[in-house]
Amino acid sequence: MGLEIAFWVLTIVAVAAALAVVSLHNIFRASLALIMCFLAVAGLFVTLSADFLAAIQVLIYVGAVAVLIILAIMLTREVQRGSFSNRLNVPVLLSTILFLGVAVFAVMATSWPVVTLPLLEATTTALGSELFGEGGFILPVEIAALLLLAAIIGAITLVREE
Amino acid sequence: MTAAGTISQASALASDWPGNFWLHLLVFALIILAFVILTVIILIWLERRLLGRIQVRPGPNRAGPFGLLQPIADVVKILTKEDTVPGWGDRLVFWLAPLVAFVPVLLVFAVVPFWNGALLADLNIGILYVLAVSSVASVGIFMTGWASGNKYSLIGAMRDIAQLISYEIPMMLSLAAVVLVAGSLSLNEIVAAQDVPYILLQPMGFTIFFIAALAEANRTPFDLVEADSEIVAGFNIEYSGMKFAILYLMEYSEVVFIAAIATSLFLGGWRGPFLPPFLWFVIKMFAVFFVLIWIRGTLPRLRIDQVMAFAWKFLLPLALINLVVTGAQVVFWPQAPYWSLVPINVTLLAALLLLWARFFRLGGSRVGI
């Protein structure tokens, strides 16, 4: 009961915030709506007992990604006028509805495998041993880390003056 | 870990202490609110008196004995001021900003253990929750900076972002070392695991955490966000009345928050002999306050390029080394006795600090932001 109320509140907030992101003209307010959306998604993770994922969602998406977006906006001129509208409104709306329909159909039509294991008390231990333990995903983790390092070094090299 | 288990089970307060879940939530929400506001009021008084003492002047001493009623007089003064809103700013965001800044700081206290088991929610992701929620507070500061429609506010907010992103990394790395030693992310478990306060076992971790926390809470010498001599008062320049009071409360709650986290993670939290646990927690917190005020009375403000270079060239490498050394100690020497680990780690801290201080150079003469 409580979980259902939480789910519906969070879902409505997330969808409303996501709509605000694309429909608001003021980019700064749109980015604030994006933060709201991220927080609501983190709340959904909490209702699914994925507490670690929720904390990481807030830490990475609100604390880092959204903050960088705001930093970029603050360095932009004429934010108040916002993004210019063009004649693609109707085609975009139609293709969005089409995509939404396909996605909803795909989700509803798939018979998802259901796991009946008991909930983990502490998810962090299991995640840690799965990611870094023997027979886990240590190689993909290392590759991802290397990829990110390469991206950072690449970004620094690109913006150097000399 | 075994010792931690015995302590946390022996005398722990039940997780739904006064009887049921909702009552527990209500009681602890009220306790946290009262605790934070009361501590902030005492802290403001203490800071002004101690700064006065350091600068050889009396400080506030008219309202009540020793000026104790000064914070109350200030609150009354602030609340009776006119509440102005700049016409050229973003009104809605201007209204929301103080709340968005203040609420996350208050939320952090949900996982701070006042004594064994006495906390709102003993999350098993404790430290991650603290880091995640406290990072939301900066969004409120950007909102104030943006919505004021004032260039000084905007510069203050930009400085805050730059500082926050830079100092969050060494802070997280130093906390990761603590988690490695304690073997848990929950703050209560970490306190229970501290047979020796981690300030001794993790001297480098504490140094890095403390400096980074100073920067995150915008305290001297990192108070560039509100550098009065450069950008008037930074992000809160356009605020007055109740909204200014909330921003002021937010700044000092952040100080209470870093003191509470430093106490729980490095100073042994509620643990101590003779006195009741809650009193130990408060005493340790006020010891941290004293050091913070002492630093404010002693050190001048840094330049923005110095602040940035210090985070990336000084703290980050040291934090990485600390993490590797701690990991090696935990893996290869898990049964190490404290009398051997403590001197080794303190010597390592001194050696690395001296070494890094010799090599630390500010790049060029260019000054950004």
Short description:
Chain A is mainly alpha-helical and 162 residues long.
Q: Which sequence of SSEs, written as H and E, runs from N to C of chain A?
A: HHHHHH
Count of separate DSSP helical elements of chain A: 6
Number of strands of chain A: 0
Shape of chain B: globular
Number of strands of chain B: 0
Strand content of chain B: under 5%
Q: Can you tell me the residue ranges of chain A where pLDDT is under 50 for at least 5 consecutive residues?
A: none
- Any idea what the radius of gyration of chain A is? 20 Å
* Terminal Cα span of chain A: 62 Å
Structural class of chain B: mainly alpha
What kind of assembly state do the chains in view correspond to?
heterodimer
Q: Roughly how many Å is the radius of gyration of chain B?
A: 21 Å
Number of helices of chain B: 14
Helix content of chain A: over 70%
How many structural domains can be distinguished in the coordinates of chain B?
A: 1
Helicity of chain B, as a percent range: 55-70%
Question: How would you state the average pLDDT of chain B, rounded?
Answer: 81
List keywords for this structure.
heterodimer, A: 162 residues, mainly alpha, 0% strand, B: mainly alpha
Write up this protein.
The complex is a heterodimer of chains A (162) and B (369). The termini of chain A are far apart. With 162 residues, chain A is mainly alpha-helical. Chain A is globular and about 50 Å long. Helices cover 74% and strands 0% of the residues of chain A. With 369 residues, chain B is mostly helical. Chain B has one domain (83-359). Chain B contains 14 helices and no strands. Chain B has helices at residues 2-10, 21-54, 70-79, 91-108, 126-147, 151-182, 187-193, 198-201, 203-216, 228-231, 241-266, 277-298, 304-332, 338-359. The radius of gyration of chain B is 21 Å and the shape is globular. Residues 1-6 of chain B have low confidence and may be disordered.
